[in-house]
Amino acid sequence: MSRKDSRGFLELRPVSIECDAVPHAEGSCLIQEGQTRVLVTASVENRVPSFLRDSGEGWVTAEYGMLPRATHERSPREAAKGKQSGRTLEIQRLIGRALRSVTDRTLFPDITITLDCDVLVADAGTRCASITGAYVALVLALSRLAAEGKIAKNPLKEPVAAVSIGLVPAEPGSPGIVALDLDYAEDSTALVDLNLIGTASRRLVEIQGTAEREPFGQDVLMEMLSAGWSGLERLFALQRAVLKGRVPEGFTV
Amino acid sequence: MSRKDSRGFLELRPVSIECDAVPHAEGSCLIQEGQTRVLVTASVENRVPSFLRDSGEGWVTAEYGMLPRATHERSPREAAKGKQSGRTLEIQRLIGRALRSVTDRTLFPDITITLDCDVLVADAGTRCASITGAYVALVLALSRLAAEGKIAKNPLKEPVAAVSIGLVPAEPGSPGIVALDLDYAEDSTALVDLNLIGTASRRLVEIQGTAEREPFGQDVLMEMLSAGWSGLERLFALQRAVLKGRVPEGFTV
Amino acid sequence: MSRKDSRGFLELRPVSIECDAVPHAEGSCLIQEGQTRVLVTASVENRVPSFLRDSGEGWVTAEYGMLPRATHERSPREAAKGKQSGRTLEIQRLIGRALRSVTDRTLFPDITITLDCDVLVADAGTRCASITGAYVALVLALSRLAAEGKIAKNPLKEPVAAVSIGLVPAEPGSPGIVALDLDYAEDSTALVDLNLIGTASRRLVEIQGTAEREPFGQDVLMEMLSAGWSGLERLFALQRAVLKGRVPEGFTV
Amino acid sequence: MSRKDSRGFLELRPVSIECDAVPHAEGSCLIQEGQTRVLVTASVENRVPSFLRDSGEGWVTAEYGMLPRATHERSPREAAKGKQSGRTLEIQRLIGRALRSVTDRTLFPDITITLDCDVLVADAGTRCASITGAYVALVLALSRLAAEGKIAKNPLKEPVAAVSIGLVPAEPGSPGIVALDLDYAEDSTALVDLNLIGTASRRLVEIQGTAEREPFGQDVLMEMLSAGWSGLERLFALQRAVLKGRVPEGFTV
Amino acid sequence: MSRKDSRGFLELRPVSIECDAVPHAEGSCLIQEGQTRVLVTASVENRVPSFLRDSGEGWVTAEYGMLPRATHERSPREAAKGKQSGRTLEIQRLIGRALRSVTDRTLFPDITITLDCDVLVADAGTRCASITGAYVALVLALSRLAAEGKIAKNPLKEPVAAVSIGLVPAEPGSPGIVALDLDYAEDSTALVDLNLIGTASRRLVEIQGTAEREPFGQDVLMEMLSAGWSGLERLFALQRAVLKGRVPEGFTV
Amino acid sequence: MSRKDSRGFLELRPVSIECDAVPHAEGSCLIQEGQTRVLVTASVENRVPSFLRDSGEGWVTAEYGMLPRATHERSPREAAKGKQSGRTLEIQRLIGRALRSVTDRTLFPDITITLDCDVLVADAGTRCASITGAYVALVLALSRLAAEGKIAKNPLKEPVAAVSIGLVPAEPGSPGIVALDLDYAEDSTALVDLNLIGTASRRLVEIQGTAEREPFGQDVLMEMLSAGWSGLERLFALQRAVLKGRVPEGFTV
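Output (structure tokens, whole complex):
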């Protein structure tokens, strides 16, 4: 048994992060994972939502979108339909929560940082790539704030990244194989789909696992988590590599 | 250490399910879990969404809503605001997926069953109560279809229910205590929040765990899962009890 | 000639009001009239709409909704459709006007009381039941404000209630029979439909009469009004009965 | 006591109806009542709403709008706000019901006639003027259908018109004076506001009376009705006068 | 070759402007050009949009609408559809720009003038008629401000007007004929459509030319411009004629 | 006098077109003009809008969007605001018209080609870059249809491209300088702004010129057109160069 792109079941697709992909943004990157391509920008604004006014805390939030032809078939444009889908809202809430979980927002009061994650090409794993890339864009934006003397200390506690793990069908009668970082073809036939968001200290930020066809046993969950952590290690290494030399001194990421 | 309502940390709140709470609906119940109260109806319609036309499959879907004063402070009415919040959409997608995971939809082609879960009083755990109650309403609606000779076989594979588990703060310096079925006061200070949707055969349908303050270790996840399963056992027992005598012969639930 | 539930033509359906049906609300009740069931909450907020700012007056307003399966056939959820229907808006404007007509709003400046009337089961007469119940919820909320010392005097001038009256078809050739408090089956074949909102001093707050099939003479109007007043008397008696002992001294209702 | 424009309390404002005010429409008129000016068109379309398909009945419906500067202060354009107000929806539902009540829709199956009532200048009484004018536009459109041989018989049973009546404040201490056809200045201080829609056979189509400040006695209602009927008589005479010579033979209106 | 209404190809349709067509508005007119009829009001409000606050400048903006039966076939009402079409937005942006181009807005700081252009009857050329009429309504509103002493100097630099020019098909094989001020029948078969907005000093404010069927040469553009200027001369003369005697002394237009 | 990037006033910014930038789309390119970057996809679907059903014609349409941080300051996401701005609608209508003007749509009946133009980075000129790039994406999509045997003949009549021209301020007292292909800094201070859409046979498809500060003379228009044609020549050459070898034989572009 092997995967159609000859990857091992516990291998990630080729992944790369190109920093500073958008000139106007305070932080930005283009993250590619296989064919999936997401452009992430971090925008800094001197305001906070009303529920944080006078709280001494800043805000980190995310928006997510997909270009209409990011997908195999063209999807209607959300701006033209006049509303964002439930899927879009769910994903952008997830991205926002993930980034807030590793950020000390008392260190940038009265500032909102918006992470816009726009999918240029979708081949599964777009929410995970968005989170992994958003961390990089956020570091770049905060580094700029530090360089400009607007923040005194690094508000990031530790790196966060996300990876998808699936249970894909094996031969008939067999119970399925745990596979890392599914592409669209694999994802659309997977039995179980799990997104793992974790930190470099190997702690969980969010876990979302869904039986797509059949309920699954807790042993499967354990095996998927283990595969997930191995994928996250490689993503943390990539984040460190691309950020190297781009952050102010004493601003370890 | 004990809970303010003198429950043990692994105890559910008092929970009850009243069947047939709405006269017009094909299936319905009122589920109460502590102060949380959700009215669930199952509506049968002779149509399927366009993507299932001529597929030989029926459809099961859910909608979720909260009365404006279900909450401690009045919340604006979604119908008046002109759109459902991201939270609402996320929850109703979750309920729909959970019920579909235990249903063989080829046994009721061309039929849509909509589960409306409306929260009359909210004291945390509304999405879990919705799922647990929706299973009962769905069984009642399918039983009626069977009694009317419209379906030949029970399309339900096994019971599904949901429970929330939290990691609540203990004394300062201590790492938190795993607690089952949080109420609003506990939920709003919890360190970790996990929703477990499982089946009577002790398999997972969905797991969603979120670090609300700090990332958490995998050992905490394991302890929360274990607490969750014990809560689910009691919910399956309650579902069986209230459905007893209400389903056609040979229609085990 | 008699009615299908063996009521007399000038009899109300069995009607009951259960106070304090929702724990969080400042005032609330569940009103049932036959199968019709409406949950009413009164919510107190320390703000007024901009047109009343600095006017020395408070505000009383209403919102109305129907659960999707309150009706015989499931109706689409207004929050999902993204707008409230004309019928909904018309009814909630009516409820608000009715309650304001018996309230001295200069006695609670800078306070808004919102009456949410949510129909759990609809069997005709929902707008009338909403008004009759909203009066009770409003009294309860104002009583609490009085008990907390936030208002000095009872702002309610006198009780208000509402009842529907119809002209239902008699034998062919005969001109129709005036009937009180129609249920859905009667309502859907009525020739004339009248809603009467009146006060305990037998004065009119609002009258809305509509020819559903044929224009009608003024004599019919007179007979319907007379039937209406008899129904209102019984509703005022019920309001008094359920509120007894629940209002502060000197706070007659 | 007299009115500021020296009218008697039971007099209408000067009223005129100009037929065929819009060249493209099948029927149209411009109705003026004092300064109030409403342009009404009747549009014939070969379709019916889905609930009337194959029913053998046609449809009559209405839409209502106000130009932004019809009012003393400019009002926001509903098209720009993205929704029609509750008031607009309520008025257009009323106009549609009124016209349907005098129409035999089995005589024009599969045809929809839409009455667009657009207020060019608003000085109170716009809903009543809309109904009175819509009857004229509808007669003109049906006359054209008859002239083209598309309908065999006049579907109109009898004329319908509408008038407003108010209870306006008299000297302090006195109970108010019943006045016909209020203008904006009178309307905005009226104690009671009543709209009477009636037919030439002196039967009621709709009555809507509202206490604007204080509940009112049934004697006031009687006096207002009596004033209303006298106003309607004059409107029926005007309708007859302007339609004279414009309807096919045997098509009495 | 001649036009169906026996006009010459370089002649305008009969055009008239009736000032003060709406009593409440600070400025207003009804402009007719052939069958096209547009009601224009200028409304003065003591506020500016947020981007002009404290800028020392006032604002001039426009809104455009069409009554549903202005057109040959009834069009759906934009307020009912819940949004303005792209065409509507494009036209109202154009009208606003045109009027701002001849206005010195520093002479009425903190004031917004809104030009509402509502098409009562549409027979092509509605955007041009709107601009030509909006200039008149704007002069009238500013004259009133001057008369009330609210502005010291005439903020209008020079008159602006607009005209449409088309290239209409000639005999087969021939290249088309340039024609001024197309009506609907001509417009719907035109090869090229050009709108020219110019000032009395023969300078361009806006030019929009579109190939409706085939791209066109620059020589055609030149011939259309020349025809357009001749039409604009006549519109400036009409504006001057109707405004004569209506503006304060020293307020040349 | 020279430009800040040392370009001549009649020079374009560096411009490049990268074909096949999106794997799933039938045709696509990334066009860059200075810092402006637009991703264009052409999507082929087997349907036409209802007004073209059974007409023997296909359809070509466009949608336009801007990523929130394409601009110097972050702009709110249109999908989140729930509607597309007037500017967006105006631009996408323009792009669609431009492409249709050079396409024989009878050669691909029952097919819709949608050109999605999404701005990744905005530095002025985005609508022109969208049109120039959309032509390339459309050629690629039609070439694929030809290669698949789905169309027999090239439906494109000739290339189309677009360029912006401005009148930028010169020294005080001097009348301004005509400049080609403005960037954001130039565009925001320009006196006149003109977009020229033309074909390789030097014919006009659309011309839109706007006085941003002062009306302008016809001599300025002529000079701007002349500058525009020189820019278009260079864009046609680039289109030809990047398409070379990518179109089927006999499919000249």
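The first strand of chain E starts at residue 15 and ends at 19.
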